[in-house]
Amino acid sequence: MKMNTMTSMMKPKPKAQTGKTPQRRCVGCREKKDKAILVRIVFSGGVLAIDRSAKASGRGVYVCRSIACLTKAQKSKGLERSMKCSFQPEIYVQLIHLYKAEVER
Ligand SMILES: [Zn+2]
Q1: Most C-beta atoms within 10 A of its C-beta, which of 6, 18, 39, 72?
Q2: Residue 48: phi, psi to the nearest 5?
């Protein structure tokens, strides 16, 4: 009995970018890092949220998994510049709270 008919049809797709992880710039320290290790933050529905799926719509920025970088981004207004809006301090308080929970998991 032939069981491998299906699998032989599904050839692995050739990878478009071999060995290259997309790079994104952290809005805190301004360093370019692998997208995979950064946390994506999106502004949607009037709040800043952590986008774990990295697929949420809206303008997103990337920050290292570090509260220090998030704080830097807040102080330098990097988030506001990247997202082209300004945020109330409460929005940051909320975000930092979420962020801590995220990075300290
Ligand atoms: Zn950083």
Answers
A1: 39
A2: -90, 130
Expressed in angstroms and rounded, the spacing between residue 14 Cα and the centre of ligand 1 is 32
Residue 103 burial class via C-beta count within 10 angstroms: exposed 0-12, middle 13-18, buried 19 and up? middle
What is the Å distance from ligand 1's center to 64 Cα?
A: 4
Q: How far does residue 77's CA lie from ligand 1's centre (Å)?
A: 14
Centre of ligand 1 to C-alpha 3, Å, is 50
The answer to whether residues 60 and 41 touch, using CB atoms and an 8 Å cutoff, is yes
Domain-wise residue ranges, the chain: 22-103
Assessment of whether the complete model's pTM goes beyond 0.70: yes
pLDDT digits (tens, 9 = 90+) for 52-86: 887 888 889 999 999 999 999 999 999 999 988 89
Second-level CATH architecture of 22-103: 2-Layer Sandwich (3.30)
Report the separation in Å between the CA atom of 36 and the middle of ligand 1, taken as the mean of its atom positions.
Answer: 13
